[in-house]
Every structure is written in structure tokens, then in C-alpha cells.
Amino acid sequence: MKHRRFQKLTGVVLGALLVASMGAAVRAQDATPSPSAAIEATPGMDVKMMLLPKFIGIAVFDQAHQGADEAAKELGNPTAVDFVGPTAAEGPTAQVEFVTNAPAGGYKVVMLSNNAGDQIAPAAQAAQAAGVKVVTWDSHIPSGQGESFFVAQVDISETGTLLADMALDTLGPDGGEFAILSASPDAANQNAWIAAMQEALKDPKYAKLKLLEIVYGNDESDKSYEQAQALIDKYPTMKLIMAPTTVGIAAAAKAVQDEGLCDTLKVSGLGLPAEMVSYTMNGCAPEFALWSFVDLGYLTYYVSYMLATGSLQGVEGETFHAGRMGDYTITKDPTRPDINALRILMGPFSVYNKDNVEAAAG
């Protein structure tokens, strides 16, 4: 029927159609192909998943657990996420046992905030060989061995610049001496952020900032408090303690407050508004920053579920949709250019001061 109507068209109409079709073909050749749609998760699949923080009992990791639970509910996974890990007293290498035992425990994926440096790599490799996916978040495996990809909260170089800028903002144009209170010596994210800050400090605008020492509180409140007190005693002219760890910054601020030094010695770094609000309002910690750990837990769970269920292959260039957080792409990790490592970058930072900390803490 369509063929007979086509035969009745006049030559003029046929010519017009031919020209139009040729033009359309040319335009199609010139057009840039539209990007592939973001990969969607397949909800309702039963996947046993482990969320393994550096330590149990730290507020930001509880928030990450909250975000993971939110994603699990949206995805309809009938098996609840296991939020397990060592205590601070057990030390950073205690995570190795959890990763080692994951295959026997029936887990399909371990979501790891690494606190053991490359010491955990053999266990992660063995888990992957046994069919367990290992996704790092918050803190990666430096060598990338045994890691499917890293869900990074923020860019490392950006973190270093932010820390340097907050130090300069806090100390002012005259600068001064400062020390760094970090978590554990093997915490990959802490080490990378500090290295990035040291690189940023080479810029002439930071010339009047002098780094005295880097100390470690192992993300234990009591030890971090003791380390802050030791810095106060050792460096009487020190003007700032920079702590890129939520445990360390709160402990340092308390130490400075307890010593009655808030007018002359400040604290800055990465902190949780609910834990820092009083120190910000009284001037001990006038400025600090952080990102949403709820969002980080949500994104980590979402992409780990997709990897474990086969929606994602976990290769460079895959773009996927992560629920309320939108679309992300798996890329090479530019912060580890010499190894075969992949990254998903979340972002952004939020900077807190007297103007916004009470609302954020509320």
C-alpha cells in the first residue's frame, strides 16, 4: 500500500525528497554522536556487602553508614549492609583480617576505607581472586593492587591547596609557625593530603607559613589530645595546629581551649560541624572544612552494588547513574599516574566558620 502511494508522487516531489534525504545524510555525518546514556542499576538483587571503615566509633563513618543504608533501601537489596571494623585500640592493620575473611563470609563486595597502606593489598588481591569486589572509599590502596576503583570524596591536590589556604586565612598575611596533627602514619588519604599541602606551600604566597612538624594521633581522641598538648609545650611560638582528620581537629581544639590559648593559637583542618561548632564560635577553630560523609557512603554503596551485580564492569569510561546524586564516570586516577588505578570523584568541599557552622551542626 505504501509502495503504490510512493509510485504516484510527482517527479518534483521525488526530487525534493531526494535532496532532503541527501541533506539529512550529510547532516548526520557531520553531527557529533550523542553520548551513551548513563548505566542504571538493577534494583532488588540480593547482595551481601561489607562497609569497612578505618575504625568503628567515629562519627563521620557512622554518617557514611547512614548514607549506605539510604542507598541500600532505594536499591531494594534485601540483605542489610554489614558495618563492621576494628576499634582504634586494635590498630590500623586490624582491617586486614576483615578483608581476608570476606570470601568465607559470603560477601560479594567489601567497601574499604583503607587505614593500612599497602599492607592490606595482598588480602585485597586474594579477596578479588576469590570473587569478592574491593572498592575503596575515603582512603585508597596506594599501589592500587586489589582495588577495583577508588571513590574519592574530593581531589587530593584541591585538598592540599584548601589546607594551605585555610592556614593562610587563619594566620593572616604575617604568617607564622604551624604543625600538622594527622591520623595514622599509614593512612593513605592523610599522607596524600599532607603531601599535596606541602606542594602547595611552595607557592610564594605561602612563604611566611612555616611547617614545624607532623605528628600522629592514630585517630584516637586521647592520643590526639596528648599529641596536641605535646606540640603546645614544644613550640611556644606556634600559632596554628592543622589537623586533616575529624578526630584530630576536635582533640586539638579541646587541648587549645583547655590551655586557655584560643586568642594566640588556632586550630583548622577537616572537621565535623556538630563536633566543632563550640570551638568555632569561641574562636579556637575559626575556619575548617569537610564534605558530606552521608553522600560518600551513599555513592560508595550505589556504585559497589552496581559492580557486584554486573551492571558495571568497573572499567575506565563507564558512566553510571547514582540515584539522587546523579551521573558519574569512572576515570583513571590522576593522583596515581604511575599505576593502573581508577577513580570516581564525588566532591565538593564545604568550608565552615561562624557564619554557617551553627546551621550545619543543627
Q: Any descriptors?
A:
362 residues; alpha/beta; Rossmann fold; 2 domains; seven-stranded mixed sheet; four-stranded parallel sheet; 12 helices; 40% helix
What does this 3D model show about the protein?
This protein has 362 residues and is of the alpha/beta class. It is 40% helix and 17% strand. The chain is built from twelve helices and 15 strands. The strands form four sheets. The protein has a seven-stranded mixed beta sheet. The protein has a four-stranded parallel beta sheet with strand order 7-6-8-9, with helices on both faces. It has a two-stranded antiparallel ribbon with strand order 10-15. The longest helix is centred in the first third of the chain and has 20 residues. The N terminus is likely disordered.
Outline the secondary-structure elements.
Blueprint: H1 2-7, H2 11-30, E1 49-52, H3 59-75, E2 82-83, H4 95-100, E3 109-112, H5 121-129, E4 133-137, E5 149-152, H6 156-171, E6 176-182, H7 188-200, E7 209-216, H8 221-234, E8 240-243, H9 246-258, E9 266-269, H10 273-281, E10 288-290, H11 293-308, E11 319-321, E12 327-329, E13 331-332, E14 342-345, E15 350-352, H12 357-361
Parallel strand pairs: 1-2, 1-3, 3-4, 4-5, 5-14, 6-7, 6-8, 8-9
Antiparallel strand pairs: 10-15, 11-12, 13-14
Helix pairs in contact: 3-11, 6-7, 8-9
